[in-house]
Structures are given as structure tokens and as C-alpha cells.
């Protein structure tokens, strides 16, 4: 019959693509949201051409600044002073140091089997 080894070979999936051909992940779109340069460039072009569109582009730039101000004011920790940030950082470093000391202490008790690499 025709369902022998030749029939099975046609059903096998193609081999996976090599890693070298994979494209890097695209940059997040958020980076373009923070760029004011294209709008400034458009304003300069409109002014060079004595175009009436300059008011529209200026309003777009104004709106973008307002959006960024809202975004910045809603960021977590924006109301924390640099001194408070330094204090939080110092506290977190102290916690890490304490936890590392405890981890070393527990490792020295030999109560756990640590796999050898």
C-alpha cells in the first residue's frame, strides 16, 4: 500500500528556523510618544513655507506637552523627595544585607541538600 514510510515523511513538520534568522524584538512604541522633535520639525517647516498649518501643529505640540505633564505627575514616587528616596534605598540595601546574612547562616546549618553544579 502507499501508506508506507514515504507517506509518513510527507507528514513531518518542517524543521524549525535557525536562531540567526530571528529578528530582534521591535522597540516599544512608547519611546516615540515622548519625542517632541518631529513636531518641532513640522513647525519649522510650516514657518519656512509661511503655511497656515503652523497654528495646528503648535496646538499639537501644546497638547503633547500637556499629556506628558499629566503622565509625569501620575508617575509613582514623583512626590518623594531625593532625601526620602535615599532613605528608602538605604533601608532596602540593609534588608538585602540582612537577608543575605540569614541565607548564609541557613546554608551553614547543613539542613538542606545543596546540589553541586
Please tell me about this protein's structure.
- Helix 3 (37-48) packs antiparallel against helix 4 (54-73).
- This protein has helices at residues 5-11, 30-33, 37-48, 54-73, 82-108.
- It starts with a helix and ends in a 9-residue tail after the last helix.
- It has a domain at 31-75 and 84-108.
- The chain is elongated and about 80 Å long.
- It is an all-alpha fold.
List keywords for this structure.
MED9_metazoa, transcription, coiled coil, 5 helices, 117 residues, elongated, mainly alpha
Number of strands: 0
Element order, helices and strands? HHHHH
Q: Which term fits the overall shape?
A: elongated
Query: Count of helical segments?
Result: 5
Given helix and strand content, the structural type is: mainly alpha
Helix content: 55-70%
Q: Specify the biggest β-sheet.
A: none
> What average pLDDT do the residues reach?
76
Taking pLDDT < 50 over at least 5 consecutive residues as the criterion, the unreliable ranges are: 15-29
| Rg (C-alpha, Å) | 30 Å
Family: Belongs to the Mediator complex subunit 9 family.
Main location: nucleus
GO biological process, one term: regulation of transcription by RNA polymerase II
Protein name: Mediator of RNA polymerase II transcription subunit 9
Amino acid at each position: 500500500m502507499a501508506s508506507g514510510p514515504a507517506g509518513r515523511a510527507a507528514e513531518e513538520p518542517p524543521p524549525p528556523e535557525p536562531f540567526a534568522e530571528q529578528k530582534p524584538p521591535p522597540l516599544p512604541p512608547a519611546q516615540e510618544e515622548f519625542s517632541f522633535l518631529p513636531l518641532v520639525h513640522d513647525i519649522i517647516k510650516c514657518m519656512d513655507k509661511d503655511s497656515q498649518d503652523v497654528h495646528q501643529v503648535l496646538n499639537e505640540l501644546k497638547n503633547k506637552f500637556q499629556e506628558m505633564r499629566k503622565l509625569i505627575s501620575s508617575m509613582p514616587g514623583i512626590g518623594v523627595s531625593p532625601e526620602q528616596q535615599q532613605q528608602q534605598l538605604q533601608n532596602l540595601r540593609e534588608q538585602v544585607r540582612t537577608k543575605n546574612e540569614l541565607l548564609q547562616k541557613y546554608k551553614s546549618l547543613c539542613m538542606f541538600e545543596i546540589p553541586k553544579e
